[in-house]
Design a protein that fits this description.
Chain lengths: 419, 267
């Protein structure tokens, strides 16, 4: 890769400059936390500001991305899928090929470098699907740091494989039994832990949510996805893509892809939320499909809550998209009309999962399958010489039990497949 | 009506310290107003009334569970205002401070919130996750209604922020004496004393100390350093037993409060 495409490039962005000094993206974002957390966040922000502009830090980060994560990840032309859909050419940004199998490792490596620099001895994280927990446990193992991962008790059950992976890596997984026992409650517990032991603890947050500086910092660490994709797309097709598509849980893989293209007004941007059982059913995680804005877990953004402001439980077949809040920068991109947010239902995502697996020999994560489901709708409306880049944020191994269960099969190792 | 100021003025001239118990509105169900009167009968000077939120991230397990119990009883912000109104029918002196999280207030709208709070007879509001630098719009709604903005200061708050906080806050300052969430570990009395003295360089407002006060002894010790002793977890953990013990646990809350009152007055 040329030097230009390396991490420094973000500093040179010309027109789009977000967030502001208070961490707001327009009206969204900010740092809405109790005073008990403020000094820890200020310390983190100051360190991040200093290091992100530091060439030694940048070199360390680039080296880890290259040699530990395995970057650059390929941009793959999915020819059979493109042909079948009969429209635009579809290119997959292969974040599934990263070490640990998803984009999460990019920001875990970046935050771990910060933790090391700050002399922290203890890493904590939250996780939903387990991908971010695995990525965090991985970087903690590599640095020899204590690692505690909070995970909703329901997710511990749903994601047994990843729980065991984290344990093998030496992490302590703490099942969270408060509230809805899912990702949002795991974040609450991680924040409580951090407040209690701020001196020795670094909280590696798993997405572009939470109080400032997390949304900005995690985006910057993920922005390598878009920088690579831009260069690769130009090399392979001679032009910029016509459209970008990524799934949006908290929104880190999507911001990672989108950020580099925000000033390229001709590139259409689509974020795909989890439509679950359908918006009318109420069982979904399509925060942007409603018009509720509020303050939750440190940030102002679109969210899911009732008329009394109580956060409501989201639902998706994919644990990584099952979250009632969304990163503030996505809310901002929606508000200024730069990105469009759509959704795919469980059924659409599962169909896209099967299609990609059969057509291209690539088994996507159920999260990424939501992005693919929208691509199946979008591609046929475009010309054959147009290009869609879709972020394949992770691989599907972790979801095989879920898909098997939907197929009415139990995979328990003892008796093999029981239909 | 500035009940908070009046109350602290009275206490100061009587050389007494304020006792400020916290309970969550709607926990147990249906007994909140009665409980508030019971707190006053046992020596409470100010009542802190939590309005429940689904994700009370600054609170420890005891108070977090109280929020969820209250929500399971269907308690809304409007219900909380009704409780305060009902309390005011028999008590027009004891200041009531609402304490909770921002999202329910945002969804109601700052203006409507201020209007309803004022009508109900609320005297102060502590919005845990609304820091002073983002509080202007909210303060602009509650101040004209005579409602105080209560803010937190912690062991790690910088002097610069203490200044900002004191410029936004009114009524009293709430010093959180421990790192961590509500209900954690033990407290260090002489450290608290030093910190309160330090804060007082920046403001004439009374300084209350909360988090970690459990019994008469700790209340009396803290009352030497602070103008007000704020106690939550120790009381709420009694109320958590309502399902098993019914009214008995509420009486015990009363006697815990009166134990603290006596210890503070006789130190
Ligand atoms: C593979 C994969 N994609 C996407 C997500 C959603 O997160 P985000 O929206 O932050 O990219 C997750 C979260 O666990 C994930 O594991």
């Amino acid at each position: 890769m040329s030097d230009q495409s390396k991490s420094q490039k973000t500093l040179d962005k010309e027109t789009y400059q977000q967030p502001d000094n208070s961490g707001h993206f327009g009206q969204f974002g900010g740092r809405y936390v109790a005073e008990t957390l403020t000094s820890a966040l200020q310390e983190l922000e100051a360190t991040y500001r200093e290091l992100w502009r530091d060439s030694t830090f940048q070199a360390d980060f680039d080296r880890d991305l290259a040699h530990f994560v395995g970057r650059p990840s390929p941009l793959y032309h999915a020819e059979r899928l493109s042909e079948k859909l009969g429209g635009a050419q579809i290119y997959l940004k292969r974040e599934d090929l990263n070490h640990t199998g998803a984009h999460k490792i990019n920001h875990a490596v970046g935050q771990a470098l910060l933790a090391k620099h700050m002399g922290k001895t203890r890493i904590i994280a939250e996780t939903g699907a387990g991908q971010h927990g695995v990525a965090t446990a991985t970087v903690a193992a590599r640095l020899g740091l204590e690692c505690v991962v909070y995970m909703g008790a329901k997710d511990v059950e749903r994601q047994a494989l990843n729980v065991y992976r984290m344990k093998l890596l030496g992490a302590t997984v703490i099942p969270v039994t408060s509230g809805s026992q899912t990702l949002k409650d795991a974040i609450n517990e991680a924040l409580r832990d951090w407040v209690a032991r701020p001196e020795e603890t670094f909280y590696i947050l798993g997405t572009v949510c939470g109080p400032h500086p997390y949304p900005e910092m995690v985006r910057d660490f993920q922005s390598i996805i878009g920088r690579e994709a831009k260069q690769q797309c130009q090399e392979m097709t001679g032009k910029l893509p016509d459209a970008l598509v990524a799934c949006v849980g908290g929104g880190s893989n999507a911001m990672g892809l989108f950020y580099e293209f925000i000033d390229d007004q001709d590139v259409k941007i689509y974020g795909v939320e989890a439509g679950g059982l359908g918006i009318e059913s109420g069982e979904h995680a399509a925060r942007m499909a409603g018009d509720r804005k509020g303050v939750f877990q440190g940030q102002r953004s679109f969210l899911m809550c009732d008329d009394d402001g109580q956060i409501t439980e989201s639902y998706s077949v994919s644990a990584g998209l099952d979250y009632p809040g969304v990163g503030p920068e996505h809310s901002y991109l929606r508000e200024i009309g730069r990105a469009e947010y759509v959704y795919a239902t469980d059924d659409e995502a599962l169909a896209a999962f099967r299609n990609l697996t059969r057509m291209e020999g690539i088994m996507p994560a159920l999260e990424s399958s939501h992005a693919l489901a929208y691509v199946e709708k979008l591609a046929p409306t475009l010309e054959k010489d147009q290009v869609i880049v879709v972020n394949l944020s992770g691989r599907g191994d972790k979801d095989i039990h879920t898909v098997a269960a939907i197929d009415g099969l139990a995979l328990d190792g003892k008796s093999g497949l029981q239909g | 009506m500035m009940r908070i100021k009046q109350r602290f003025d009275q206490l100061r001239s009587a050389s007494r310290k304020a006792l400020v118990p916290y309970i969550t509105a709607g926990d147990p169900a249906g007994n909140t107003v009665e409980m508030m009167h019971e707190l006053v009968r046992n020596g409470a000077d100010v009542i802190e009334l939590g309005f429940p939120f689904s994700d009370p991230v600054a609170d420890g397990p005891v108070i977090a569970k109280a929020h969820l119990r209250a929500l399971s009883h269907g308690v809304t912000l409007n219900d909380v205002f009704s409780m305060v109104s009902l309390f005011r029918e028999n008590d027009n002196e004891t200041p009531v401070v609402l304490m909770g999280y921002l999202n329910p207030v945002e969804i109601m709208g700052y203006e409507v919130f201020a209007e309803k709070a004022s009508k109900a007879g609320v005297d102060g509001v502590l919005v845990v996750d609304l820091p002073p630098e983002f509080a202007d719009d909210f303060v602009a709604q509650i101040k004209p209604k005579g409602i105080d903005m209560i803010n937190l200061i912690t062991p790690t708050t910088s002097d610069e922020r203490i200044k900002t906080i004191c410029s936004v806050a009114s009524g009293f300052i709430y010093y959180v004496s421990l790192k961590g969430v509500t209900g954690s570990a033990k407290l260090d009395i002489s450290g608290v004393q030093q910190r309160v003295t330090h804060i007082k360089q920046f403001t004439d407002m009374p300084v209350g100390v909360g988090f970690g006060i459990r019994d008469g002894e700790s209340a009396a010790a803290i009352s030497q350093a602070a103008d007000a002793v704020i106690v939550g977890t120790a009381l709420v953990s009694e109320l958590a037993k309502f399902d098993q013990e019914g009214e008995a646990c509420m009486q015990r809350v009363g006697s815990r409060v009166s134990e603290m009152r006596n210890a503070m007055d006789n130190r």
